Amino acid sequence: MEERQQQLRSDQHYLPMRVNEPLMVIFWDLDEVRPIVLSFALGVPFDAINYFVPVGLAYFYVARKIKAKYAKGILSHMSWWHGFLPMKSTRSMPDPLIRELFR
Questions:
Q1: pTM of the predicted structure, to 2 decimals
Q2: Which parts of the chain span the membrane according to its record (predicted)?
Q3: What is the residue extent of each domain of the chain?
Q4: Is there a contact between 38 and 56 (Cβ–Cβ < 8 Å)?
């Protein structure tokens, strides 16, 4: 790391970045902040910011609680398991709505 910093010019700074590190907006993950920004973006043109922002904040709160309690892909897994998020059938991934498989 010291060698890499010595190779940079005086007006450049080395910022370490990890492969598995999520994108952050100040202190929060991007997927938590996205509904709040989207609620502002939809609330202003429709003149309903008082309705959209509380929905975005509620989604932010619920998303943080779910991420703290469960594994990373629990919402997509549960929606797939109950059939709300269907996937194409392949040999390794059968249709989730078929409960009995025959060969």
A1: 0.57
A2: 36-62
A3: 27-85
A4: yes
